[in-house]
Amino acid sequence: MDPPSANDPATGLPLPPDAIVRVLHITPKIHIYSLPPTSLSTSYTAASWTSLSQNPIFTARLRVLETTFDSPSSSSPESDETNTVTKVDILLEHPTTATLFAAAPFTASAIVTPCTDSSRFFALRIQDPSTKSKATIGIGFEERSEAFDFGVVLQECAKHLGFLSPDHPSQAAPKESAKVKKEDKKDYSLKEGETITVNLSNTKFGRRIRAASTAKDENEGGQGNLNSFALAPPPGSTSGGSPLLPPPPPNAREIRAQKRLSAQQMGFDDGKFGEFA
Prior knowledge:
One of its GO terms (biological process) is endocytosis. It comes from Podospora australis. Residues 21-200 form the NECAP PHear domain. This protein has helices spanning 47-50, 144-161, 173-183, 204-228, 252-265; strands at residues 20-34, 58-72, 82-93, 100-105, 112-114, 121-127, 134-141. The radius of gyration is 55 Å and the shape is rod-shaped. The protein has a seven-stranded antiparallel sheet with strand order 4-3-2-1-7-6-5. The chain has a domain at 20-73 and 82-163: PH-domain like (Roll). β6 and β7 (134-141) form a beta hairpin. It is α+β, with helices and mostly antiparallel strands and 277 residues long.
């Protein structure tokens, strides 16, 4: 906060003794550009400024000042009632001597217009404090962070002065949106006694489980079929019924006939006289 000054930094006119001047923003170095005649529109592009050979025309220090003071009420000048007056000015000064180069009373949002092709450049409408003549110049910041801070300060000033449109995007909007999302967050935790069922039938895990179960059933089924074809064990000696009798021994005639038949099959014959008998 600056100490009370005798003159208004923006106009050079004397200030009331109770005036309070606050520095809201300061950028030590910005560049000033002259706008081509074709730039008389509501949108501006910084490329059309920087391409001119005469630009930049000046390097200045930028300050945003808020001045607050009490003014007598216009409805009843004779009464002791006063109104608090607040105004904001954008000053372009010499970087070392602080000599005023130009001032822009921030009375509307259109006083400062961001460029469409760069966030570091703005179109600024300045005003001569004595003749009230106006002109539009271009200003450019060297750092994006400085340009961002400048825009945030002007946005807060516009809210305080009351000429910011309600549908204008605010810097606090993301925080409020995040707060609403946090409040709307539902609790999906299981309460006491509650259970959860997971259906894996259409997943690779479900197919793997079904394949393993099918293979197990086939193995068990095959073993069951083999068991069904198993032969019954022979009956024990203690089982009921008489045991089988062995066959009777052959007689001597059958034994001789069998030997003779075997000798003929092997090519041995007794001959006519029975030499090999």
